Amino acid sequence: MSALPLRRASAAPEHPSPATVDASVLARLTAQFAATAADHDLSGAFPRENFAALQARGLIGLVAPAEHGGGGAMLATARRVISAVARGEPATALILTMTYLQHHALTRPDSRWPAHLRERVGRDAVENGALINALRVEPALGSPARGGLPGTVARRDGDGWQIDGHKLYTTGIEGLSWLAVWARTDEAQPRTGVFLVPRNAPGVRVIASWDHLGLRASGSHEVVFENVAIDADHAVDLRAPADWAPDAGSQTDIDAHATQQAWMTVLLGSLYDAVAQAARDWLVDFLNRRAPGSLGAPLASLPRVQEHVGEIEALLRTNRVLLDDATAAVDGGHAQPATDSGLLKYTVTGNAIRVVELALQLSGNHGLSRRNPLERHYRDVLCSRIHTPQNDAILVAAGKRALLSSGAAA
Fold first, then answer.
1. Residues 139-170: tens digit of each pLDDT
2. Residue 192: beta bridge partners?
3. pTM of the entire predicted model
4. Rounded CA gap, 319 and 125, in Å?
5. ∠ at Cα 300 (276, 23), nearest 5°?
6. Are 309 and 284 in contact (CB under 8 A)?
7. Would you kindly state where each structural domain of the chain is located, as residue ranges?
8. Angle formed by the axes of helices 48-56 and 23-43, to 10°?
9. 56 contacts 11 by C-beta, under 8 angstroms
10. I need a surface site. Which of 136, 347, 388, 396 has the fewest CB within 10 A?
11. The CATH number of domain 135-244 is 1.10.1040.10
12. Could you tell me which residue ranges the Acyl-CoA oxidase/dehydrogenase middle domain spans (predicted)?
């Protein structure tokens, strides 16, 4: 029941330190990925060539722990990479974001994963470009962030576990090597947690159901687990359900959770902000080139157009300042509370959506044409709303905190 051996890398990748991930490398990747983004959007095909390019530059293992051969990158560097990738092809960036988040979790001081499995996942990324994601959402449960026990069940089977269940929105499944599966045990007092499953384990079946408005190349299909056998130690983190609460455990545990939440919101915020930047770039070029005969000058010369582009610049600047501030806090060891991370996501993604809406307003039919990328940027940026935490949960948490604080002060 052991995980299958690691694949041999077809070519030795570069392994740049975080300091050597320079702007020229990222700019070339942005342009390369943008050149085929429309094709991936149309076909929904997994962007394998994009991940080959990332691996050739050592960027898939950039966040993996340094002691396992990875770059051990801090959030600022991870954010630069995700932003550059997303500016070219955001589905690739989303899949890479999920791998970066899992790799960062391997370094958490509260990690309960066995050391040899942390090392195996990290080295697999560095040597082979292996991707990993968490599989959490289910047809009946929805997102576990809303509470409830998962329907995916792990049963003891001899010296290992047997897993049965059904997961939705398994981003990147066509290219993943490792699945961090959220499940419950069948014990009298069920525990919940993460089971590390090799993607190629017998009994893992993909239902190709992803046909989405945006991020179409993310391949976020359904996955069914049927009698999937793993070793006992692949139950990498099991706890009583109450012990998964963000405020459970020691202060170290609480701080580690806040840091992980901040990584997630900063990287996802950077991704969708980059989509908005790509929309802004297309719009500015269009407005400078488009010169209707009735005007006799480019649209960029109109004060009304200049005003709305100024609004776009203000929205993007706000995003940049907020993301820079949150990133500096995390890398300085002072991650903001989870509620503030949620507000960051709410503001940045809302601004990104507004940027693309303004671009569509200014470009009219041209922006809605399938031959131009703006309508694709709009479809992609709308996907920002569905990531955990969703807007309603963010605002309720922030409202409760404000009201309780006000009540205590009174």
1. 988 778 777 899 999 999 999 999 999 999 99
2. 184, 239
3. 0.93
4. 31
5. 40
6. yes
7. 18-129, 135-244, 251-405
8. 170
9. yes
10. 396
11. no
12. 138-228
